[in-house]
Specification:
The chain has about 180 residues and is mostly helical. The chain is built from two helices and no strands. It comes from Cucumis melo.
Length: about 180
């Protein structure tokens, strides 16, 4: 089993906790400053709130890119000429009346009626006697048993459900961080 160093496991945890603490403190200082500036009476002097100095970053050095090599302009590709095809003959307008009278079309020979195929006759089956079903014996009329009568119950009243008082607010399912407003 591989052993882990203490620093590889603990250092990222310490770093993430430190970052979370700094994030929460910056939110708290902004909110505290906003509350102090807005909630003080007019006659009282405003307390001095230490603020972090604005860090000025040094300007980044300008990086000059080497010029791109000039490419020659693209020439239009020369396409080979397509061969010219001879014109196709035009077909005449098709009229059904003219086609049937045109004698240049070959006529189809009339087909005589085909003889109907003769199906072989099936052999006749002998007459089987019908099976006799025995009759069930008739049962004598038996009187129906009398059931005892159930007592009549009074009708049930509608159940009364308890209602919530109107002054109890409904629970909110929003997260507590969603209601926080920053100035």
């Amino acid at each position: 089993m591989a052993t882990l160093r203490f620093s590889t496991l603990v250092f990222p945890v310490i770093l993430s906790v430190f970052m979370l603490m700094n994030f929460d403190l910056s939110i708290m200082t902004v909110n505290a400053r906003y509350l102090l500036e807005t909630s003080l009476p007019e006659g009282l002097p405003k307390p001095e709130i230490p603020s972090l100095p604005n860090l000025e970053l040094p300007p980044l050095p300008k990086v000059e890119l080497p010029p791109l090599p000039h490419l020659p302009p693209l020439e239009k590709p020369k396409l080979p000429e397509l061969p010219k095809f001879p014109e196709l003959p035009k077909l005449p307008n098709l009229d059904h009346s003219k086609i049937s009278k045109d004698s240049s079309l070959p006529k189809l020979s009339e087909v005589s009626e085909l003889p109907k195929p003769e199906l072989p006759k099936l052999p006749e089956l002998p007459n089987f006697p019908k099976p006799e079903v025995p009759k069930l014996p008739e049962l004598p009329n038996v009187p129906k048993p009398e059931l005892p009568k159930l007592p009549e119950l009074p009708p049930l009243s509608k159940p009364v459900l308890p209602s919530l008082p109107k002054d109890i607010p409904f629970p909110s399912f929003n997260s507590p961080h969603a209601t926080r407003t920053n100035p």
